[in-house]
């Protein structure tokens, strides 16, 4: 399974990426997490300042940087049996890179929620900085307030989860990323390609069930 998760920031991609990756044993590749880890571990490099400037403003990091990262990540041995991409591709150019590299995506899951819910979801979000595990104060709280379920370490609020940056991220999404929905839907006529749109306004458990039904059906038909 070579899966892409699509949908606006705050829609829940991170939450379900973790679920799918654990359940189906796929590497969970989040470009946002890779970038945040790079910043965390390379405090004073030129590239860190450059990447941080983009992220903190809520605008996309330049394609050349992202493409280098993704190419390097996808040739890793753990991607041989499949992978899950969260946050890539984010525009048509990035999607075409996968094509050029002959990396065939066969499953796309698109998450959606009404536009007026997006800001609410992002504002309550907390993350565990080094792993990228995401929580939501109300919708998906950790077992102990403000502590990561696995390590017990403190959760933080992402610097780009503020109202000004969110608006920039949403603009970027609707202009650059949303066209990917049609880009991938056009592939539906091809064999061995599956697309699912999931409304993420229901409970986490019911969304997990929908994802399972979809992915199990694909596995059965193989
Ligand atoms: P995310 O964790 O997916 O919300 O991404 C956080 C930030 O990382 C975005 O607002 C962008 O600045 C940057 N970013 C993540 N993925 C990409 C990508 N595929 N292309 C360009 N910038 C990205």
Q: Pairing-aware structural class of the strands and helices?
A: alpha/beta
Low-confidence stretches: none
| Ligand species | adenosine monophosphate
The tally of structural domains comes to 1
Architecture, according to CATH? Answer: 3-Layer(aba) Sandwich
Cα-atom Rg, whole angstroms?
Answer: 17 Å
How far is the first residue's CA from the last residue's CA? 11 Å
DSSP strand content: 5-15%
DSSP, total strands: 7
CATH class: Alpha Beta
Q: Write the CATH fold name.
A: Rossmann fold
**In the CATH hierarchy, what is the superfamily?**
P-loop containing nucleotide triphosphate hydrolases
> Order of strands across the biggest sheet?
2-3-1-4-7
**Run of helices and strands:** EHEHHHEHEHEEHHEH
List keywords for this structure.
Rossmann fold, alpha/beta, 5-stranded parallel sheet, 7 strands, 222 residues, 9 helices, binds adenosine monophosphate
Structural account:
With 222 residues, the chain is of the alpha/beta class. Helices cover 47% and strands 14% of the residues. It has nine helices and seven strands; from the N terminus they run βαβαααβαβαββααβα. The strands form two sheets. It has a five-stranded parallel sheet with strand order 2-3-1-4-7, sandwiched between helices. A two-stranded antiparallel ribbon has the order 5-6. Helix 2 packs across helix 3 (46-57). The radius of gyration is 17 Å and the shape is globular. Adenosine monophosphate binds next to helix 2 and helix 3. Adenosine monophosphate (AMP) binds at residues 9, 31-32, 35, 54-55, 58-61, 66, 87-88, 90, 94, 160, 169.
């Amino acid at each position: 399974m070579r899966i892409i998760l699509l949908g606006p920031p705050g829609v829940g991609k991170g939450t379900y990426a973790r679920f799918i990756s654990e359940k189906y044993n796929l590497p969970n590749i989040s470009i946002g997490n890779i970038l945040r880890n790079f910043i965390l571990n390379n405090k004073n490099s030129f590239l860190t300042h450059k990447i941080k400037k983009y992220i903190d403003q809520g605008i996309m990091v330049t394609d050349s940087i992202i493409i280098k990262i993704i190419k390097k990540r996808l040739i890793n041995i753990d991607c041989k049996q499949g992978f899950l991409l969260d946050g890539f591709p984010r525009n048509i150019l990035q999607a075409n890179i996968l094509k050029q590299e002959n990396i065939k995506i066969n499953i796309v899951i698109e998450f959606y929620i009404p536009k007026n819910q997006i800001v609410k979801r992002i504002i309550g979000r907390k993350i565990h900085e080094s792993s990228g595990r995401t929580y939501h104060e109300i919708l998906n709280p950790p077992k102990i307030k403000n502590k990561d379920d696995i390590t017990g370490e403190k959760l933080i609020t992402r610097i780009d989860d503020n109202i000004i940056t969110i608006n920039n991220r949403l603009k970027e999404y609707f202009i650059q990323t949303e066209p990917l929905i049609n880009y991938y839907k056009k592939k539906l006529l091809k064999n061995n390609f599956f697309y699912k749109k999931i409304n993420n306004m229901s409970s986490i458990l019911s969304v997990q069930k929908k994802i399972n039904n979809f992915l199990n059906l694909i596995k059965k038909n193989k």
